[in-house]
Amino acid sequence: MVEYAVYAVPGAQYAGITLARPSGDIETPATTHRYPALLDDIQQRHRQGPCFVAAWHQHTVRIDDLKNDKRWPNYRRDALAATSIESILSFRLFASEQTMGALNLYSDKPYAFDEAAEEIGYVLATHAALAWDTVRREDHFLSALASRDIIGQAKGILMARFDIDAVQAFELLKRLSQERNIKLADVAHQLTNLRSFSDL
Is the pTM here over 0.90, yes or no? Predict the structure, then answer.
């Protein structure tokens, strides 16, 4: 997606994905160059910048001339010192309680992005957000499926060991989960890895 964004958006030379969390932690999981990750590090240091704002507060942020943009002075100073970037275009990708995301495009030239670039970037960001959501849902589904399987195995072990039915085995797992204050799937995983019940 980031490689295609550089190809498709007029004026874009580099692109990256920013993930931002409420704690202020920022991650750059995909990039076409070292600059996007470097600029994300600067944003994390100062808790300010266009990608951060696009992810948390606005859908689109555009900087036409970083040298003369006054919105984030600490970010601007360090970004200009560390890179040759002068134009930035950031789009929100998705929002959740835990993580926000932004697609960011960069250029070494001032006024690199126009309205057409903004429109194309917005369409790409929308597609990227849909793809990201699909991947996250699939990951959650596979995780839930794996948890269900491990819980089923643990129930079978308990049923065989204590001569109880499936409902009783599940209730026993729930009780262990509550007593130890850990997730049911984690209790089940521990149980399936035991060499003897005295280890439980």
Answer: no
